[in-house]
Amino acid sequence: MTATADLLQVPAGPLHDARTQLRDATDLLGYEEGVFKMLATPRREVTVSIPLRRDDGTIDLFTGHRVQHNFSRGPAKGGLRYSPDVDLDEVRALAMWMTWKCALLDVPYGGAKGGVRIDPRNYSQAELERVTRRYTSEISPIIGPERDIPAPDIGTDERTMAWLMDTYSVQQGYTVLGVTTGKPLSLGGSLGRSTATSRGVVHVALAAMESRGITPASATAAVQGFGKVGRYAARFLAEAGTRVTAVSDQYGAIGDPAGLDIPALEDHVDATGSVVGFARSEPMDAEELLFLEVDLLVPAAVEGVLRADNADRVRARVIVEGANGPTTPEADAILQAADRLVVPDILANAGGVIVSYFEWVQAKEAYWWSVDEVESRLAQRMTSAWERVSEHALKLDVPLRTAATCLAVERVAQAHLQRGLYP
Ligand SMILES: NC(=O)C1=CN([C@@H]2O[C@H](COP(=O)(O)OP(=O)(O)OC[C@H]3O[C@@H](n4cnc5c(N)ncnc54)[C@H](OP(=O)(O)O)[C@@H]3O)[C@@H](O)[C@H]2O)C=CC1
Ligand SMILES: O=C(O)CCC(=O)C(=O)O
């Protein structure tokens, strides 16, 4: 029998953080021990070996995972990550957060996540295609439009999803658009998906700033990460009139107290592959970006960047989690004591899975929505989720993360109860 203590005694890292957050929620909800154990443990995990014949003829071997945390409310759903830092515990945590995100936003899915331990920057497109096809073949018995639907995450993109969809479809003998989301528009992708996570981040960032009396036009912001989430978050914040004074990527950080010219910066990144070296900016220390005196901080890169050892240095009044798991529970407590408002990942970055859901629905209907339709439904869902979570936080007198996790966990537990999976 699994002991609760064992589930909480995993090494420091995302899984420890996710289980600690779950434990806080199940305690507050007054759930019995068994409910915590059930929800702390993934329903299914697959680990695969992926051999790759490199372009130079040598052979490399990678490890990949797909973790399906929960199916109680529908098929599992969640991104696929290519990163040298991928490990099974990280994927387990990310899968659990997907379950809460889908439940909180009431999209009819459980949670999953996948990962391959590879640095995609070191491989050609042809090599990445072979890795994706082999990984897809290996996990194909457990994915599908009614089972588990991958989408892009760190290091993957719409091209990866096209290869995944094609590999799965070839095995089935017909085109299965609904097996993934975040696909290219020409292959059943949805208008608005590529920018959806960032749009959602900015919807809640503006609402959160308003709740603290900060207007977008008077605000300053720093964004960590300039990939699929950070880049468009910076763009939409700038379009809302906010001065984005610093951004970063894996290569470093840049800043300009007067506000970076985001369209020009995007051109620079397209041309060079990094924010570093942008002419109209000063280089800065990448970690220092987290501690700038700004109104809004958007961590949009990786987990665990705000921790016990640095959270007391954060000066941003509002932190909106574009990334999954950027704040550890210890950092949460420090930020709460310092009256920083933290909008949790499962709310803040849910725009991506919302529009993934719209993409899946469109594939089922074989009927495509306009970008206005997609974006107005996205805005409506994000705004009402923000209102529900902030009201619940006020009612319970708890931080937004606790309120959001309680709402989500309650929904998932209810689904289990109603299905009769536990008495
Ligand atoms: N894509 C989506 O729809 C969603 C993504 N998320 C989450 O958002 C986060 C970012 O994902 P996404 O934008 O898709 O991924 P991308 O791979 O597109 O971008 C990641 C960005 O983070 C940068 N980065 C990576 N490591 C570091 C680091 N240690 N310090 C600073 N920057 C770093 C990368 O730098 P470089 O450009 O140099 O590689 C890149 O700019 C992840 O936590 C992901 O799980 C959440 C919901 C949906
Ligand atoms: O779009 C999706 O299905 C999942 C996106 C994702 O991985 C996430 O929200 O963390």
Automatic annotation (TrEMBL):
Annotated NAD(+) binding sites: 197
GO molecular function: glutamate dehydrogenase (NAD+) activity; nucleotide binding
Site (Important for catalysis): 153
Keyword Oxidoreductase: yes
Biological processes per GO annotation: L-glutamate catabolic process
Ranges where the Glutamate/phenylalanine/leucine/valine/L-tryptophan dehydrogenase C-terminal domain occurs: 190-420
Active site: 113 (proton donor)
Family: Belongs to the Glu/Leu/Phe/Val dehydrogenases family.
UniProt-recorded name of the protein: Glutamate dehydrogenase
Species of origin: Nocardioides marmoriginsengisoli
